[in-house]
Design goal:
Layout: E1 8-9, E2 21-22, H1 35-43, H2 45-56, H3 60-63, E3 66-68, E4 71-73, H4 75-90, H5 92-95, H6 99-102, H7 106-122, H8 124-156, H9 165-182, H10 186-190, H11 202-205, H12 207-213, H13 215-242, H14 249-268, H15 274-302, H16 305-324, H17 331-347
Antiparallel strand pairs: 1-2, 3-4
Helix pairs in contact: 2-15, 4-15, 4-16, 4-17, 7-8, 7-17, 8-9, 8-14, 8-17, 9-13, 9-14, 14-15, 15-16
Length: 359
C-alpha cells in the first residue's frame, strides 16, 4: 500500500459526531492512501478499464451468451454487473457500519429505506419512476465521485477548499454527462422511459424517441456550452497558477484520463463496451475508497487483519452476484436491489466530507 498515512478525525461542531477521517495536515502526502494504492485503484482504473474493454470486445467473453440460473448473460456482463451491485451495497459499510456516522442520521439509515421499498412495491408508477431515476442519478453520482477524488488531491497539495471548487464540480459533470447526451450511448440511457407505457404514461414513454429526434441539437448544445466552459476553466486555472497555486499533478492526471475515457467511450462507443468500461472504473474506485476509509475500523473490530478485507469483499461480491442473477419477477427482492441503488446515491451525498466543502 506504499506510504499510507495515519488517519485522524476532523473536528465537528460541539455535540456532533466527527465528520470524516483525514490525513494529518503537517507534511501531508500528495496521495490519498499511498503511491501503490492510489495508482492501482484511483488513478489508473480509467486507462486499465479502457484497455480491458477493448481487449474483451468481440471475444466470446463479451459476446457469447451463457445461461446462469435461467438467465442469459455474457461472462463480461456478469462480471461488471456484479461489480456494479457490489459497489452499490458497499456504502452500507460506511453509513451503517461506522457508528459515528450512523448516530448522526439514524432515521435516514433505518426508516427511509423501508419507506422507499414500500412505495416501490406498492405502486407500479413509483417502481418505473425509481428505475429511471436510478439511471440518471447514477450519471450525476459518477461525476461527483471523480470530483471528490480530484478535490482530495487538491487538498493534499495545500489548496484552499473553496478555490476552484464550483468549476471543478461542473467540469466533472460535463466530462461525464456531456458525452452521454451528445454521443452514441444517449438512447441507451433514455430507453428506460419506455417502461412508462406499461403504467399508462405515453408522454413520458415517448422521451427516448423525442431525444433521438433532437439528438443533433443536443450534440451541438453540449459542444457549444462545453467548449465555452472549458475556456473559462482553463482561464481560471491559469489565473490560479499565476497566483502561485500549482495544480496537483495527480488531480490533472485523474481528470484528463477519466474525461478522455468518458468522451471516447460514452461519446463514440467504438468498441461497443462503454457500459463495461465506465462502470468498471467507477466501481473499482468506489470499493477502494470505502476500504481506504473503513478498512482500518473493520479490521480493528475483528482483531484480525486479513479477515476484515475478506469480510468486506466477500460480502459485497456475494450480494453483487446475487443481485445481478436475481430473477426480476421476484418483485420484493427486485425492489430491495433498487432501494440499495437509490440509497447508495443519496447516502453518498452526505456521508463524505466533500459535499460539506471541507475539501
Amino acid at each position: 500500500m506504499g506510504q499510507a498515512q495515519t488517519a485522524s478525525v476532523e473536528a465537528a461542531p460541539p455535540g456532533r459526531a466527527p465528520l470524516v477521517e483525514v490525513p494529518p495536515a503537517p507534511s501531508r502526502s500528495p496521495y490519498i492512501v499511498g503511491p501503490a494504492f492510489d495508482w492501482a485503484f484511483f488513478l489508473l482504473p480509467p486507462l486499465l478499464a479502457l484497455g480491458l474493454g477493448i481487449a474483451l470486445s468481440g471475444t466470446a467473453l463479451s459476446d457469447a451468451p451463457v445461461r446462469f440460473f435461467g438467465q442469459e448473460k455474457t461472462w463480461a456482463g456478469l462480471m461488471v454487473g456484479s461489480l456494479i451491485h457490489a459497489h452499490l451495497v458497499a456504502v452500507f459499510f460506511r453509513s451503517h457500519g461506522n457508528p459515528a456516522i450512523f448516530q448522526r442520521f439514524p432515521l435516514r439509515f433505518v426508516l427511509v429505506p423501508v419507506l422507499a421499498w414500500a412505495a416501490i412495491r406498492g405502486s407500479a408508477v413509483v417502481a418505473v419512476a425509481a428505475t429511471v431515476l436510478a439511471t440518471f442519478w447514477d450519471v450525476w453520482h459518477s461525476g461527483a465521485q471523480t470530483f471528490g477524488l480530484a478535490r482530495i488531491y487538491d487538498r493534499n497539495r495545500g489548496h484552499p477548499p473553496e478555490m476552484g471548487r464550483r468549476l471543478d464540480f461542473w467540469l466533472n459533470q460535463l466530462l461525464y454527462a456531456g458525452p452521454i447526451l451528445a454521443g452514441a450511448t444517449m438512447w441507451d440511457h433514455f430507453q428506460g422511459f419506455e417502461s412508462f407505457n406499461a403504467v399508462g404514461m405515453p408522454w413520458l414513454a415517448s422521451v427516448p424517441a423525442r431525444m433521438t429526434a433532437t439528438h443533433r441539437a443536443w450534440t451541438w448544445g453540449v459542444l457549444t456550452v462545453g467548449g465555452a466552459f472549458l475556456v473559462v476553466y482553463v482561464a481560471a486555472s491559469l489565473r490560479q497558477l499565476l497566483r502561485g497555486h500549482r495544480p496537483s499533478l495527480h488531480k490533472v492526471f485523474l481528470l484528463v484520463t477519466t474525461g478522455g475515457c468518458s468522451i471516447y467511450t460514452w461519446g463514440f462507443n467504438s468498441w461497443g463496451e462503454a457500459f463495461f468500461i465506465m462502470n468498471l472504473l467507477h466501481a473499482v474506485q468506489y470499493l477502494a475508497l470505502v476500504w481506504a476509509t473503513e478498512g482500518a475500523r473493520l479490521q480493528a473490530r475483528l482483531r484480525q487483519r486479513g479477515l476484515g478485507l475478506a469480510l468486506f469483499l466477500g460480502t459485497v461480491l456475494v450480494y453483487g452476484v446475487g443481485a445481478e442473477l436475481l430473477d426480476p419477477d421476484l418483485d420484493s427482492l427486485w425492489a430491495g436491489t433498487l432501494v440499495v441503488s437509490l440509497m447508495h446515491f443519496w447516502y453518498d451525498g452526505f456521508i463524505w466530507s466533500v459535499t460539506r466543502k471541507q475539501i
